[in-house]
Amino acid sequence: MGAGTSTQAAIRLAADIGGTFTDIVLEGPSGRTTTKVLTTPRAPEEGVMSGIAQVLDLAGVKPADVAILVHGTTLATNALIERKGARTAFLTTAGFRDILEMGFEKRIAQYDLDADRPVPLVPRTLRFTARERVAADGGRLIPLDEDDVARAGAAMAEAGVGAVAIGFLHGYAHPDHERRAAEILAPLLPDATICLSSEVCPEMREYERFSTTCANAYVRPLMQGYLERLRAALDRIGLTAPLYLMMSGGGLTTLEQAARFPIRLVESGPAGGAILAADIAAASGLDRVLSFDMGGTTAKICLIEKAVPETSRSFEIARVYRNMKGTGLPVRVPVIEMVEIGAGGGSIVRVDAMDRITVGPDSAGSEPGPVAYGRGGSEPTVTDANVVLGKIDPARFAGGTIGLDRDGAERSLARTVGDPLSLAGFWPAAGVAEIVEENMANAARVHAIERGRDIARHTMIAFGGGAPLHAARLAEKLGIDTVVVPRGAGVGSAIGFLRAPVSYQVVRTFRALVDTSQLGPLNDLVMGMSAEARAVVAEGAGGDPIDEERLIELRYQGQGHELSVALPNRALAATEIAALTEAFESLYERIYGLRIPDVPVEAVSVSVRAATPGDPSPALAAVGRVNPVAPTDHRLVYDAGRGDMVEHGLHWRPDLAPGDQLDGPAVIAEDETSTIVPGGFTARIDAAHSIVLERRPAGAETAP
Predict the structure, then answer these.
(1) Which residues contact 248 (CB under 8 A, 6 or more apart)?
(2) pLDDT at residue 13 tops 90
(3) Cα–Cα separations (whole angstroms), residue 576 to 440, 516, 567, 582
(4) Which of 218, 434, 455, 599 lies at 20 to 30 Å from 402 by C-alpha?
(5) How many domains, the chain?
(6) pTM score of the predicted model
(7) 3-class SS at 366?
(8) Residue-wise over 520-541: b if at least 16 C-beta within 10 A, else e?
(9) Is residue 618 part of a domain?
(10) What is the pLDDT of residues 402-435, one digit of tens each?
(11) What are the DSSP calls for 205-228, one per residue?
């Protein structure tokens, strides 16, 4: 089960820190309790503790009764994006000082001479070198010059660095020089954290390895301090349950591992949402799913096939240009593959020099927040537009804990959008909604096309505080007929945390031709990696069984990219080498349409992922009854299909039961979000209490 729990009756907590809200979920024998509180950026643990206090009080649970706490945070991501990490130095092999600046040595935009490259986290003045050289086969060509290391350490101390990244040529395979350099630097920099590339990212390809190690060093003091403060605050109230951290690859890890390798947490919140969507897909028997997660700062879109999210071993952080590859900082860690755009509820709205409405990517966050929050915000946001369009009830926002100023939101939109574009009434807000929805639709189309998928054949699963407000309109733009809004959608990522397994992935470079001569070294390497991964997972498994996934990266000799092929969860036999080669060539042919005869196949790297079984929901039962329900009230809400404010029937989601059905236009409200059901859609409640929106055939709309 997820997070090493031994019984479904255990009381479990999840906390997800976003850019605007911190979401808290408690699950136990009596059901689920949730809350949203504003994030406290200067001391994130304060928002977490406030939310935990609220849900414990609402559920009538004592802190000591909690069995486990699972946590995800955007703290590391935001520190990298906003450049608010530690002052970091980098020590590398003589002659390689500028590799962080050189990158891949190619144009990021073929015809744009002014395209900006990402600025390295470590400036050139803090990049130091030491004479040393180890060959790729382990031969020591030049011994480590320890005097060079000591001189670099003295310069680092004088510069006041708080973190050091060490990355030597071929250190991924032969780490002795990196380890010795760390031993020399430690007494010279007693207050600095030191990260080795051979521990953070033990893979070939120097630029990505060095970039990942620098990023880990850059955020580690911040994350380590935060996690220690959070652990201390939990202990003070008597909540001594184990604390696990959500990783970007979709698994959980221990507090100690998270503090050591915080770079693995950078996409932890979105990963929780993808796990929730995959769980719903499995329970509902959905083969093709588009996960749509929209919070206060960003919107995330992920493709899920047969209840398995698409994954990757690398991604970019903080792109200078939102959709341009190569303009971000490359990081090689396991991650759930998704596209993320600056289109959240707090995304700031402007009109550019060409009289176009633009949305994001910067966000008003929680301080000061949207204008409607009345906390000093002066720039209008997507949330302000939704308030003006009637999609959000100002009196019941966030369960009534935050009163919204509709008039203030309308004035700010009129000033920023209406006056420059000569738009009046609700039209500035409608323009914002149309732009943000088209931005999300375009990102989803590109993401699907790049992967050869027909997006219209997918079912959308929408969650996060903002997604249910826009999901139906986004589905219309993408040609999707069915949208599922799960119970607890407003805190969906936090719910996903409680479905995640404890897991850990180990990756090692293994450069060799695929033949029987390398069988012994390969099996020895994999067995050692298996033991390492299992040891980490065993800390949080709580006696649960541990599964493994073993993969080997293969390519035709001389190529620059590789494909993953499964390895058996045991020693590879000599008789299986031919089958391994055939599996690679078959996959290569399926993707690229050909095989390359007479070119040997070589291995590049091996990965081993150990994990406890997840905590999936049971298969969804059919609902035999259909019960049409009438609205309890009505409210004017903007309907994009009609281009006007239209009366929508109001329904309170907790009052709806499985089998209940209603026609749009309607609003289904709950404490943490509202689901907009446009005209042309029918909404029904399934056995899991999810809202299932389905487009009615053309001509079948009911009168408003």
Answers:
(1) 264, 265, 266, 267, 268, 270, 271, 333, 334, 335, 336
(2) yes
(3) 46, 9, 10, 10
(4) 434
(5) 6
(6) 0.85
(7) coil
(8) eebeebbeebbeebbebbbbbb
(9) no
(10) 788 888 989 999 999 989 999 999 999 999 999 9
(11) -HHHHHHHHHHHHHHHHHHHHHHH
